[in-house]
Amino acid sequence: RILKIFSRKKSSSNIDVKRTIVKFYLENSLITKLDENETIIEQQENRSLIEGVYYNDFLAVQRILSFSRYCEVIEPLELRSMVIMKLKEMKKNYE
Predict the structure, then answer these.
(1) Left (φ > 0), alpha (ψ -120 to 50) or beta: where does 68 sit?
(2) How many whole angstroms from its chain centre is CA 23?
(3) DSSP letter string over 14-72?
(4) pLDDT tens per residue across span 34-91
(5) Using an 8 Å Cβ cutoff, are 8 and 2 in contact?
């Protein structure tokens, strides 16, 4: 519902939508869980390099965290730092 509203507004205006593009490694066992905005760039024996395009940093971080320890952000480095900071905050909650 919100996406339809956003799409209508985007198509009828000159709003520049910032996107966050993230490259990350993901274990091959989770490849079946990719979204339509995520593409396999390179496949290796045990993991694949994925490029994801997200509407903002928050969604990108949440998506990365959903893969748990089976994911490693390669770029952008700023987002990698955000994920590390979020993981440290989570760890602190459980100490």
Answers:
(1) left
(2) 8
(3) ------EEEEEEEEGGGGGG--TTEEEEEE-SSEEEEEEEESSHHHHHHHHHHTGGGEE
(4) 999 999 999 999 999 999 999 999 999 999 999 999 999 999 999 999 999 999 999 9
(5) no
